[in-house]
Amino acid sequence: MNNKFIRGAVGFAAVSAITLSGGMAFAKDAISIAVPSFLTGGAAGPFGIPAMNGAKMVADAINAGKLPAPYNTKGFGGASATIIPLDEGGGATKQVAEYRNLVEKRNVDAVVGYISSGNCQALAPVAEELKQFTIFATCGTPRIFEEAARKYVFRTMGHATADNVAAAMYVKEKYPNLKGYTGINQNYAWGQDSWRDFDLTLKQIMPGSSPSDKTQFPKIFAGQYGSEISAMSLDKAELIHTSFWGGDLEAFIFQGNARGLFKKKIGVFTVGGTAAYRLGKKLPNGLVLGARGPYGILVRDRDTALNNWFVSTYKNLYGTYPSGPAYQYGQAILATKIAYDKAGSDATNEQLADALRGATFESFSTTIEMKLGNGHQAITENGYGITEYDAENGENVVKDVKFYPASCVLPPEGQNSVDWIKGGMKGAKC
Amino acid sequence: MFNDKTAKFILLAGLVLCIGGAFAPNWIVNQFMFGFARALAILGLMVLWRTGLVSFGHAFYFGLGAYAVAILDIELGVTDVFLRLLAGAVVAGTAGFLVGFIMRNYRDIFFAMLNTAISMVLFGIVVKTESLGSTDGFAISMSTILGFAPESKYPLFVIITLIGLTSALLVNFYLKTTVGKLTTAIRDNEIRVEYLGFSVAHAIHLKYTISTILAGGAGALMAMSLGQVDPESMINWTVSGELVFVTILSGPGNVIAPFIGSLVFEVLRTYAFELAPQAWQLIMGATFLTIIFFVPGGIWSLLEKLGGKKNAK
Hints:
The complex is a heterodimer.
Chain A: H1 3-21, E1 30-37, H2 44-64, E2 80-87, H3 92-105, E3 110-113, H4 117-130, E4 134-136, H5 143-146, E5 153-155, H6 160-174, E6 180-184, H7 189-205, E7 210-211, H8 226-234, E8 239-242, H9 246-258, H10 261-264, E9 266-269, H11 273-279, E10 288-290, H12 305-318, H13 324-343, H14 349-356, E11 360-362, E12 367-372, E13 377-379, E14 382-390, E15 395-404, H15 406-409, H16 417-422
Parallel strand pairs in A: 1-2, 1-3, 3-4, 4-5, 6-7, 6-8, 8-9, 9-10
Antiparallel strand pairs in A: 10-14, 11-12, 12-13, 14-15
Helix pairs in contact in A: 2-12, 2-13, 3-4, 6-7, 13-14
Chain B: H1 5-21, H2 26-50, H3 59-76, H4 81-103, H5 108-128, E1 138-139, H6 154-176, H7 178-188, H8 190-195, H9 200-226, E2 228-229, H10 231-234, H11 237-250, H12 257-275, H13 280-294, H14 298-307
Antiparallel strand pairs in B: 1-2
């Protein structure tokens, strides 16, 4: 190694350092919002892309001042927002590295998104460490705000407990003679929490039924469920609970259909809403279908100015009806606007957090109240329906839709979900 | 061990980096930490590669190192950076030494795939065990340094740089010893090496163990700099593939190569991710193909050409 080489190497390093450190610092007539969502892999088509579409559509409308009242003011506290799309794939550790890049290198003003509970759980402490205003749009594990107090992290939709308590209540109403139930859930925070909450609630409200001892926990994104389907077909339990979502959900429906699983068993799909528009005729009739709250197919006919705008604009832009993730990302962007409108476009992370903490606002399909986790975790109503193929119009519909108020399906402030259910859901107002 | 050009360059570069890191923005420091942490594992793979062995399963040791840190943190509350590093290296090294008894009997594709198999067993166990964090993994608390809790990442960066520097010097020294020189010799003709009076099995076992200690240390440092472990990013076969990718990207020419290659990989991935959120894997793949087709000697061979020397050692 000679001097020329060393000089070359040092020069290269210097040049690259200068190039890399360019492109920072913005004035505050514009803000940048990073929106992470699954853009690659099996979860992209059914979940990540509709989510991103919803976020972009709402952000564009806000920039142009075209949302229905009371949100028809232009911009985020007057500032126009640029959406930075980001891939959520690759595992929690990679997301942590990318989140640090977002905050420390790309200097985004807000981070709004995330679908996977695993990612949210990993990122919540990092967001707090970096003091970055962050809204989780979709991810569901209740642990995020129950395990620690957060200052900069929010979630603008209900968590897994609401989905599964509501599912159990709906099951009790529809199938009062249920003897046994089993479940297939992904082996990570979301799947484990979902099954735990559903199982515990049924034990409370339907003591006559009992869980199978062979519940299934395949790995997330496994895609192949042949052996699990065989095991569940042979199981005596009449009902199958699943919190599958995205590509896993569709794979499970296809493979279960081929084996006649849903003819023999009642299927309860807490995140089934996304499949309703995508699978058409291939979606079995008679499934108990949820959308993680009042979103997507469950609220398509809800006649409010905000919802009508959301459904028709989305249909015009993307050619399909909006599913749950589109609503969830859309309302998270809306929450960002509300925080900026209140705190001003040049607000600090602290001021943005103060503005959103404990807020109540009207979203596209429902009322969002930031009531749990010290004002950081939203509560909303939650509902289920039964799928039916409407041959006349060539699309899926849901019938017997029933919504349960937030106070019925979520624990009061300060209580841990699991303890609340185990204690007989005290204080629930249904 | 300090009297050749490589050693001098390593010492000089280490000094420059440690000083430079104090003034660099956080994200650049992060890139160096991730890059240099991974480079330790690459250093070990490079030794194996020179011997003609490619392991598609070193994520096993990388993951053991990372999870050793996580479990020590959760169960015993160990936060000291040196204890964590030591734990990672010892756990992985012990496992590597034991597994080495099997591995030293295999070559080529059998060696590669047997390593993959072992790593996937660990992956399966971790994914299926809720107490090991299953798919979510664990968050790791900030490291302390001999009892003092640093405010910024800079001290950890200096430690990683110094550990990287020390490892590079040691491997550089090892490759110059007689046993160390048995790399290409074994690759070219094992029988002749045996006739010279050396045990090929022992030599490979030693190299394998060294590579696993380095991979364990790398996993531990990576876990500490990221603050998170999960099986997908630490143990899965894709991680093993990534390690091999970076080894090929770096080239086997010199112990400095893994550090440059790993850093280039980190920056490349960051920018691919930033510029093409929907097609970043495509950029990585295209780079890989370009390297294999046009620069089979890796980045190091490019640097050698730039430096105008054909055989820098």
